[in-house]
Design a protein that fits this description.
CATH architecture of one domain: Sandwich
CATH class of one domain: Mainly Beta
Order of helices and strands: HEEEEHEEEEEEH
Shape: elongated
Helix content: 25-40%
CATH topology of one domain: Immunoglobulin-like
Structural class: alpha+beta
Radius of gyration: 23 Å
Number of helices: 3
Largest sheet: 6 strands, antiparallel
Number of strands: 10
Strand content: 35-45%
Distance between the termini: 34 Å
Length: 179
């Protein structure tokens, strides 16, 4: 009887640990999105793209992909590569700045690019999108692109999530069969 009680306590402690870890992972998940701003000033058009982290966890950024209107996806290795893309596509720009941060703190935002063109100039980058692949402190992968926000669980936790989902599905079927 004591062994059964000890095993039950161990199972309950393991389940509690798992639930607490899931809560902590969700709590520290970076919630990334991009914000495109187009401002028309006298004589100039200012274009800016911001990366925003609305979550409570730090985003450790692994990759940036710039998707041109043609559908071509260019992986941005460094700021120089990004600068060349802007220079090639917007030769009539007046001022320009860009950055590719490697991390983004919680509730923070970073300017990815900013450039202005004369009012009669053309922005050849109109219609471009950015895909950002980041990682949470727990190793979950976060992807933000034009479709939205996607989270892929880390390998360790994904195995437990799959097992628990299967158990929940079986329990649901058993309850449906009883009714």
């Amino acid at each position: 009887m004591e062994i059964l009680l000890a095993l039950s306590a161990l199972v309950i402690a393991c389940i509690t640990l798992f639930v607490q870890r899931q809560h902590n992972r969700k709590e520290l998940l970076p919630i990334l999105n991009t914000e495109y701003e187009e401002t028309h000033k006298t004589g100039d058009h200012l274009y800016q793209l911001w990366l925003i982290n609305n979550g409570h966890g730090v985003a450790l950024i692994k990759e940036y992909h710039f998707v041109l209107p043609s559908g071509e996806s260019v992986m941005l290795d460094d700021e120089h590569n990004f600068l060349k893309i802007i220079e090639q596509n917007v030769p009539n720009r007046k001022s320009m700045s860009n950055s590719l941060p490697k991390s983004l703190a919680s509730n923070d935002k970073a300017l990815l690019y900013s450039f202005s063109v004369p009012a009669l100039g053309r922005n050849a980058l109109a219609g471009t999108t950015v895909k950002v692949v980041a990682e949470s402190v727990y190793g979950d992968e976060v992807i933000v692109d034009k479709e939205g926000f996607t989270v892929i669980s880390n390998r360790r936790d994904a195995q437990f999530e799959i097992a628990l989902k299967r158990i929940a599905d079986i329990m649901g079927k058993l309850l449906q069969n009883r009714a």
